[in-house]
Design a protein that fits this description.
The chain is mostly helical and about 450 residues long. It is built from 15 helices and no strands.
């Protein structure tokens, strides 16, 4: 039983404002993730294999860069804490390079090199900001229920950001593309990125000023070497479980986001429907986020995440089997998918459990590198989903930029956007259920023992 009198907690304002960080992230990274693939293929003119190469090369570097950033952050010593400084000083640079990803330098060798370098740097800057931001959740409070609330705040921010980005991006891009434009131009995409970046930076600054790191490791004066950092990641069974499950989930989720525009434009036949189709799941996600924390407190985090993964899978199966002219069934499927798209905050709370577990086992607390591992799963999912998604569509006969796709190509797009993610989400639920063998009570006991030892 946990002694509530000794538990360090975050302020109410800090909990509420924490979600603004993910709201800001959606303005930058979700827009990039949703539209950069189609910008590369239909605007710049890169072949699908080139797009896949850019995405995968960036993620190979992330596999090295993300754990390094996690280690750097958790070993940082400053008057602002270990993680907050990176949010304040990194977000302006992230905003600039997010805009530069939508600069068209042509589809020749120079253009490929430029796009690759800019995209890799943008990913590194996202890591610089987002890993410390994610890590804050584990050091703002010791209360597991408040951690769930912090995760809920982040989930609400994420889904509100996705609602805004998904509902406004197509219209903004068309507006900036000029009068009479039926599809967005490169200028339209870049101007939209500028608008979002100008909004995102102040939101990150609010998080910096309202958050506080109340958990300071006992080994504050000691810095971990790279070998200890890597060992603490690979040997932790529960972190590796979250990494595996999250990677599979993110291949489905982020990969789907990056190519949903193809489904809307070519299968449903209207660029203007992008806002509606991509907004519905986000609205559903906000609704689901309001109940996910209380539900997790009642039945357990593992059970809630498995439930949300199965629910999302069912929603995408409904969409996949819907004829392209049956908008009612398509809408119902997206609503079901969206309502259950609310498990991310609980995943973050489970990462905090992994941190506590390893601290008790070894005496070492690795908030930064653990959240870097979770962040890497997001990026891997984005890269694998978008890179292989484009290749799968091309294998079915998709022709970039062509307004007339064959029936087989349309079937390939539907398979890539809906069927494959549905199967992956179901697999993620099974993996979690099999591999995660501790209850929430087990982790509560770990935190109680850590507090008693510290006192």
């Amino acid at each position: 039983m946990e002694n509530s009198n000794t538990i360090k907690r975050a302020s109410t304002l800090g909990v509420i404002c924490y979600g603004l960080g993910d709201l800001a992230s959606q303005f930058i990274w979700t827009f990039v993730g949703s539209y950069l693939t189609i910008f590369y293929t239909d605007i710049v003119g890169f072949a699908p294999i080139i797009v896949s190469g850019i995405m995968l090369l960036a993620r190979v570097w992330d596999a090295i860069n993300d754990p390094m950033m996690g280690s750097i952050a958790e070993n940082t010593r400053s008057k602002f804490g270990r993680f907050r400084p990176y949010i304040a000083f990194g977000s302006p640079f992230l905003a600039v390079f997010a805009v530069l990803t939508f600069v068209n330098m042509g589809n020749g060798t120079g253009g490929v090199i430029f796009s690759t370098v800019i995209y890799i740097i943008a990913g590194m800057l996202y890591t610089l900001v987002n890993i410390p931001y994610s890590s804050l959740a584990a050091v703002m409070t010791e209360d597991p229920k408040q951690r769930n609330l912090i995760g809920t705040s982040r989930s609400v921010g994420m889904n509100i950001g996705m609602i805004i980005v998904n509902s406004c991006s197509a219209g903004l891009a068309l507006h900036f593309s000029g009068n009479g434009a039926e599809v967005a131009t490169g200028h339209g995409y870049m101007m939209t990125a500028i608008v979002y970046s100008l909004i995102a930076v102040p939101l990150f600054m609010v998080v910096f000023f309202t958050s506080k790191e109340v958990i300071v490791p006992d080994y504050e004066a000691r810095k971990l070497n790279p070998k200890e950092t890597l060992s603490g990641m690979l040997k932790n069974k529960y972190l590796m479980t979250i990494f595996l499950v999250s990677t599979v989930q993110m291949v489905a989720f982020m990969g789907r986001i990056s190519i949903t525009a193809f489904y809307v434009i070519y299968c449903l036949g209207a660029f203007t429907l992008i806002a509606l189709i991509m907004t519905i799941p986000s609205i559903g996600g906000v609704i689901g986020s309001l109940v996910v924390a209380p539900l997790a407190n009642r039945i357990g985090k593992k059970q809630v995440i498995a439930l949300t993964l199965i629910g999302q899978s069912i929603g995408l199966f409904i969409v996949y089997f819907a004829p392209f002219t049956n908008m009612t069934q398509i809408m119902i499927g997206h609503w079901v998918y969206g309502i259950f798209n609310c498990g991310f905050p609980i995943c973050l709370a489970m990462v905090a459990d992994c941190v506590d577990f390893w601290q008790e086992k070894t005496g070492i607390r690795q908030d930064g590198s653990y959240y870097a591992t979770y962040g890497l799963s997001t990026k891997l999912g984005n890269a694998i989903g978008s890179a292989f998604g484009v290749l799968i569509m091309a294998g079915f006969g998709y022709v970039a930029g062509s307004q007339e796709q064959t029936e087989q190509a349309l079937r390939g797009i539907n398979t890539t956007v809906n069927l494959i993610p549905a199967i992956l989400l179901a697999c993620a639920a099974v993996l979690l259920w099999i591999l995660w063998d501790k209850s929430d009570k087990d982790f509560d006991d770990i935190r109680e023992r850590l507090r008693n030892k510290h006192e």
